[in-house]
Amino acid sequence: MASPNTSESSQSIDVFYPSLDTSEEKITDSSDYDSSASDSESEDGNGEGINIGDGIWTAIMGEDVGPQDIPFIAVPGPKHAHPPQAEPIDYINLFFTDELINLMHLGLDNYFTSPRLFIEHFNSHTPATGTVRKNRKGLPSSLVNAKLQKKEVAARRKNNLLCVAYKDNTRQPILLSTYVKAGFVDTKNSKGKTRNLPNIIVEYNNAMGGADLSDACLYKYLTERYTIKWTHKLAFSLFGLLTKTSASVVHEEIQAANQLEPIIEAPENAAQPGPSPCRLVKLDVGKRRDCAHKHTTRVRSSYQCPACNVGLCP
């Protein structure tokens, strides 16, 4: 059952949480989703007079139906492989050609993304997912101006195009997709901790691969500068990408060499060290010593090594 809305916004906005049933969405005012009061194209932020697909932005009531099935055409070879007759194409002609049919699910950052581009991609049988800037034409104004609380999600759909606003810890990105449904999925981070994230966030991370991670690494040591000539900035940007790539390659080669070095230098019949004869001795009740083992935080132990006379964890 939907819970009362807790988001603070200048206008009512539907919000749902990972802890709730994803088949329902939290609705605060049904009049906000009437056909006469919905986010039509003429009422979208900077969207007046823009023909971005048929229909209007509507709230997702109940389970999201998702985009229509794309009639993919079978392509010989491995998955995502280009057909033999495919020729190189320019990005500017990306959605004016049929050569990308059944080839990929695109992941785009906010520099390229717009509702019009995603509709053209979908009409060319190429689904896409990506972040979008708030000033793009054709976005629902209720999501652009929404003030969400932490971990809140709001979604709108216009036929095959899904628009989602998600408040993370500090940022509130807006994403578009013609590939996924609204909802949540359980994922694990690098530390093995389970997180409940929107489907569109997970698909965006999978589609982008290491592009965002590489940009994040370069941003820490940014070499780009504002210059009068854009060619200078482009040269610095390419230099940073080359440096990042070469550093990654060198790091992998050095790491592999360091792993092989002890194996090569070890004698064939090297004796394995046996167990230590010393046993840990328990201290008197109430006495504890700092553990000599390397920890990120201070650890106190009730045991010590009699030979080394240092505290150790059992």
Automatic annotation (TrEMBL):
The lineage of its organism: Eukaryota, Metazoa, Spiralia, Lophotrochozoa, Mollusca. Residues 105-239 form the PiggyBac transposable element-derived protein domain. Residues 1-13 have a biased composition (Polar residues). This is PiggyBac transposable element-derived protein domain-containing protein. It holds the Pfam family DDE_Tnp_1_7. InterPro entries: PGBD. Residues 1-53 are annotated as: Disordered. Signal peptide: none annotated. It comes from the Eukaryota.
